[in-house]
Amino acid sequence: MTDTSGLQARTHQPALVLAGTLALAAVASIVLNTGIALLAGLVLPDGGVRMGLQPIEYAPLTVAGILLGTLGWYVIRRTARKPRAVLRVLVPLAVLLSFGPDLGILAAGASFVNSLALMAMHVIVAVITVPVLARVLPLPADPA
């Protein structure tokens, strides 16, 4: 009789590695985002409008951003003829588009420092997540 007890564990290992690595990316992103929020808090004037700089506000959005980015990476990896070329354009574009709400709160009365801190948080998440995804969901070489 053939022993298949280890087969299921090996089948799920890539999913566990992906989940664990993304969890570490989320923790690292939240820690660095907390540092940004604390620094911004030191500079922001007392009594001024503060938006998005509390962990209850940015931590869930950090995780959501990582998960959405991972989904996009996965879809492009599976469907694009040249995934590296697509992501080389799409990742910076997505980060730039993520600045939209930050500019919106600036227009709504938040300080420039507040908005800049939120923009820095988006960059941090991308800087941490992209190399993680490149490692756990590697891209095939683009055809010539």
From TrEMBL:
The protein's name in its UniProt record: PEP-CTERM protein-sorting domain-containing protein
Keyword Ubl conjugation in annotation: no
Origin species: Kibdelosporangium banguiense
Keyword list, A-Z: Membrane, Transmembrane, Transmembrane helix
Organism taxonomic ancestry: Bacteria, Bacillati, Actinomycetota, Actinomycetes, Pseudonocardiales
Transmembrane segments: 15-44, 56-76, 85-110, 116-137
InterPro entries found in the cross-reference section: DUF6069
Pfam families: DUF6069 (PF19545)
